[in-house]
Fold this sequence. Notes:
Blueprint: H1 8-25, H2 29-35, H3 41-48, H4 68-80, H5 84-91, H6 94-103, H7 106-118, E1 122-126, E2 142-146, E3 149-160, E4 165-173, E5 182-188, E6 194-198, E7 210-221, E8 225-226, H8 232-268, E9 270-271, E10 274-275, H9 280-308, H10 314-339, H11 349-362, H12 367-377
Parallel strand pairs: 1-4
Antiparallel strand pairs: 2-3, 3-7, 4-5, 5-8, 6-7, 9-10
Bound molecules: flavin-adenine dinucleotide.
Amino acid sequence: MKNPYDNEERKTFHEMVSKFMETEIWPHVDAWDEKGSYPQEINEKVCQLGVFGFGIEEQYGGLGFDDQFMRKASSFEMGRSSAGGLFASIGSRSIMLKPLVELANEEIKSRSLPELLSGRKGGALGITEPGGGSDVARIKTTARKEGHEWVLNGQKMFITGGIQASFFVVGARTGGEGLGGISLFFVDADTPGFKRTPIDKKMGWWTSDTAVLYFDECKIPESNLMGEKDKGFYAIMDNFNYERYMMGAQMLGMSQRCFEECVSYAKERNTFGKALIEHQVIRHKLADMSAKIDAMDAYLNQVAQLMNNGEKPVAEISKIKFYCSECLESIASEAMQILGGAGYLRGNPVERIYREVKVMAIGGGSKEIMKDLTVKQMGL
Ligand SMILES: Cc1cc2nc3c(=O)[nH]c(=O)nc-3n(C[C@H](O)[C@H](O)[C@H](O)COP(=O)(O)OP(=O)(O)OC[C@H]3O[C@@H](n4cnc5c(N)ncnc54)[C@H](O)[C@@H]3O)c2cc1C
């Protein structure tokens, strides 16, 4: 559907990202996914597109400007590539950049941001723990002050990009119980007392490295506290807004790819003497899918414009996160149905997207939690 907010600059950016994906990523997705890894130079190639540099000053390797429509375009194309695991892994830097830029000290920013934004080094965000992810206010990992150091103890679970990452932003308890006792810390991967192990055998995102992080008397300088002590919860929540918006755009891209794949299959496949696409039941499925895609797209555009105007529509971002995941669940399922038995074979984008739907409905805030947050933000 036509985007009324589109302009030449945004179109050019979108086309540049789309062309890169179709030539450099699409041909390799199946092989990388089966292998469970990808060539490391891809980190740098993707970062060179500038897709992680929005809202970050040029002196740190950022773009020096922000635009939610361009953010949306890059996430859309990451989703449309069907390389969910690849972009989870490369994109893990993007979910730790906002707190890093806004809260870390100058020394940390000037040594980590250029490395992260160039793709030479990776970054990850550690919030979720083995005891739970939804209830962030109950984080159990602790940080105690000893002289000029913080000493971290605890574990983090499901950390995307956590095996490759050189830099981590980690939430830990510095105060009493509840949301008022949490702080954010910058941790270098080579700090003594820090360890990580891979989590293998995931349902999807095979290309991505997911880790358990362990902090055992892990000592970091006192200046690695990011922002104010005990105020980390609010920074975590603020950061989630961007992650959730981008996940919405990614889910739109995944939906679009499912649509494209099943349209092209339905044009080629013949059943009962005519092309599959000529059967009314199939045509209705395509109409339903397309309507959902338009609705997601329009919702994302409207919220992009609000955010470009400086607003932070938290309720709408939460709605986008769960609404897009529900649309994607239905679209991926119908696309699989149209592909019939062929869809059930590994090595096609629809099958992969179908397996990766669930992580989009759980990670970055599950749909139940998004619905709770929505009604709360609506004052109900
Ligand atoms: C592949 C993958 C990658 C991830 N990457 C990262 C990462 O990089 N960094 C990071 O910090 N985390 C990461 N996560 C963790 C993710 O954010 C959490 O899985 C998510 O927040 C849910 O937490 P949980 O799994 O502990 O589920 P729980 O919090 O235990 O919840 C279990 C289920 O119960 C539901 N539920 C919980 N409370 C309520 C309630 N009050 N009412 C109704 N339903 C409720 C939830 O919605 C969920 O469906 C990742 C997860 C996965 C699977």
